[in-house]
Design goal:
The protein has about 375 residues and is of the alpha/beta class. The chain contains 15 helices and 13 strands. About 40% of the residues lie in helices and about 20% in strands. Bound molecules: pyridoxal-5'-phosphate.
């Protein structure tokens, strides 16, 4: 088989400094990891609250493995839904204060499956330009007419919303925390517009759950708009420290997703041990608010030391530092690794051309003196 055409494209990626070397990183407890034999602080992980290695979460997973084995064996509808899945759904309902919850094998699958199931090809979807790829893919798959807006120019969205509706429903779809810049969606304004122009708001809380809001429910809680948002989608793979996606919703939406979200219907259920671990994590998020307080205080300290030298205002753990050129971004990330910090080197196509950046994800596992040292290195 001849793959010359791929090899030519791959060479082009190398020439443009867009080549992605896939590294092996050994995770270690307390937010550390081992890269090329050295122990470094991992600031490229989304395990914000240091729960992935919490002994109690690990123990819950081990117990479930002893009881239920490793794989779920089938999709939830066929025979894959176990008491551990049911327990996790109940935990999410309680945590989120919603009637129902649906589990997916990842946050990606939750977004694609939910949006493509709820939105019809008669509808119009207003989609933020910086939304996560999985939201964009879900919107595309729905067949709806897609209108792209920018959350820093809501007047353009409003102008579009004012236009006469074509008969289908209207949806506004947004990340709650924009994953590449770390800024928050203007959810209060978006709710106003959704009310005023008869649209439904869908919010992806991937980076919000466990981190924002006084109970850790996310940015919708932080802005006090939970009841005004039609559907909240979350992931279990970031602050929860495990794997999987979920939708917190009404029981009608749950029933509909069970029947028609293809990424749920046609995909094997999560391993029971993952469900057991996630239940434990949600418990710790509720009983140990000091984790997110510490995360926010370290993030605030880092932002203060960086004194505005990042891409977008905010107050959370994702801090992006614009470098622009991909080769320089790679070099700076490699230098930081030598200095003991693993940070994200983010280049196109993940972000637009000319906006390559270092992306730092703070973790509650970090110590204040490390934050100072990192800010010092970045200021050189
Ligand atoms: C990470 C992420 C997802 C995907 O979640 P996974 O569980 O990793 O598949 C979806 N949306 C946003 C905004 C994300 O950052």
């Amino acid at each position: 088989m001849n793959w010359d055409w791929l090899d030519a494209d791959l060479q082009r990626l190398r020439d443009e400094d867009l080549w992605r070397a896939v590294r092996t990183i050994r995770p270690l407890p307390d937010g550390w990891c081992e890269v090329d034999g050295g122990r470094v602080r991992n600031l490229s992980s989304n395990d914000y609250l240091n729960l992935a290695h919490d002994p109690r979460v690990m123990e819950a997973a081990k117990e479930a493995i002893d009881d239920a084995g490793v794989g779920a064996g089938a999709s939830a509808l066929v025979s894959g839904r176990s008491p551990w899945h049911e327990r996790l759904e109940e935990t999410i309902c309680e945590f989120e204060g919603t009637e129902a919850a649906v589990l997916f094998s990842s946050g990606y699958a939750a977004n694609v499956g939910t949006i493509s199931a709820l939105v019809s090809d008669q509808d119009v979807v207003f989609c933020d330009r910086l939304n996560h790829a999985s939201l964009i893919d879900g919107c595309r798959m729905s067949g709806a007419r897609l209108r792209v807006y920018r959350h820093d120019r809501l007047e353009v969205l409003e102008r579009d919303l004012k236009k006469k509706s074509t008969g289908g429903r209207r949806w506004i779809v947004t990340d709650s925390v924009f994953s590449m810049d770390g800024d928050l969606a203007p959810l209060v304004d978006l709710c106003e517009m959704a009310d005023r122009y008869d649209a439904r708001l869908v919010v992806d809380e991937a980076h919000g759950t466990g981190v924002y809001g006084s109970s850790g429910r996310g940015v919708c809680e932080y802005f006090g708009v939970e009841d005004r948002v039609a559907v909240r989608i979350g992931t279990l793979s970031k602050a929860i420290g495990t794997l999987g996606g979920f939708v917190a919703c009404s029981s009608s939406v749950r029933d509909w997703l069970w029947h028609s979200a293809r990424t749920q219907v046609f995909s094997t259920a999560l391993p029971p041990a993952v469900c057991a671990a996630a239940v434990k994590s949600f418990g710790l998020i509720q009983s140990e608010p000091e984790r997110r307080e510490r995360l926010m205080s370290l993030s605030g300290k880092f932002r203060e030391l960086m004194d505005g030298r990042f891409s977008a205002e905010g107050e959370g753990p994702i801090v992006s530092i614009q470098v622009e050129q991909p080769d320089l971004t790679q070099q700076l990330a490699a230098d930081l690794l030598d200095d003991g910090f693993l940070v994200g080197s983010i280049r196109p196509p993940t972000v637009p051309y000319g906006t390559s950046r270092l992306r730092i994800c703070m973790t509650a596992a970090c110590e204040a003196n490390e934050v100072e040292r990192l800010a010092g290195l970045l200021s050189q």
